[in-house]
Specification:
By secondary structure, the protein is an alpha+beta fold. Helix content is about 40%, strand content about 20%. The protein has nine helices and six strands; from the N terminus they run βαααββαβααααββα. A hairpin with a 2-residue loop joins β2 (about 70-75) and β3.
Length: about 250
């Protein structure tokens, strides 16, 4: 047997790096419909679950990853890095460590919330966007959040009427947004345009600077220091509109 082979040479993907451009890491829950079915979360949306998702990605700000912002809806989180050189931009590290941290955090959050242990896992992918496409990407995912909102309300409206999951999915296939809204109002009496904003538009998480007064004992005088805090915006603007664009440009400093 030969034991002196350096298998580092076989780690062919360890040398793959993300180009020096802004990029998103998108993490998605794996098999979450089945995972959450027995935990008692309300359907189609549960604020407790949304809070668990938010709390599961906030450690990314605390562990030194320093994302510019994180956009969350359903079991998906989109994590923006504009200038950070995390793991020297090694792709394998990025798509393994980040979803691992989110998975472990989510497991602990569900344990605190429901008193139940779950085996939660998230996958991850890197999306290279460049500065000029950051807002476009966020608008794309926000449109998906709206579509997810419509599909979820429509699906559970049909389930509540006695349809089986496969029947409901087949009936909804190919329906446009206005058709889904009409179905939801007819079957469940819900005006989707008036459901909580976070269900329709997602949740934006980022760091904000603020001034804090203190006392410098060496100088013997009061001082003002700049601090940073994590902010949760449960009613973000539409990213495709001017207000949303300005907000993203300001947060990401682009």
């Amino acid at each position: 047997m030969v034991w002196n082979v350096d298998f580092k040479e076989y780690e062919v993907f360890s040398r793959v790096k993300v180009p020096p451009l802004p990029f998103f890491v998108r993490v998605d829950g794996r098999g979450f419909r089945k995972l959450l079915s027995g935990l008692g979360f309300k359907k189609p949306f549960d604020e407790g679950f949304a809070k668990a998702m938010v709390e599961s990605v906030k450690p990314l700000f605390e562990e030194g990853f320093n994302p510019s912002l994180i956009y969350v809806f359903s079991d998906e989180a989109n994590i923006l890095f504009v200038r950070e050189e995390i793991f020297e931009r090694r792709l394998e590290k990025i798509v393994s460590v980040i979803p691992s941290l989110v998975s472990s955090s989510f497991t602990l959050n569900v344990l605190r919330l429901k008193g139940r242990q779950v085996r939660a896992s998230f996958d991850a992918r890197v999306v290279i966007v460049g500065k000029e496409r950051i807002v476009d990407y966020l608008a794309w995912r926000q449109n998906e959040a709206w579509r997810n909102c419509l599909n979820s309300y429509a699906y559970y409206a049909l389930i509540s009427k006695g349809l089986k999951p496969r029947e409901a999915s087949k009936l909804l296939k190919g329906l446009k947004a206005d058709q889904l809204q009409e179905l939801i109002f007819r079957e469940a009496g819900v005006n989707v345009a008036k459901v909580p904003s976070w269900q329709r538009k997602g949740i934006l998480i980022y760091k904000r600077s603020y001034l804090k007064e203190g006392y410098d004992p060496i100088k013997g005088e009061r001082v003002v220091a700049v601090r940073r805090e994590v902010v949760e915006d449960w009613d973000p603007p539409l990213f495709q509109e001017e207000e949303g664009k300005r907000m993203v440009y300001e947060i990401a400093a682009i």
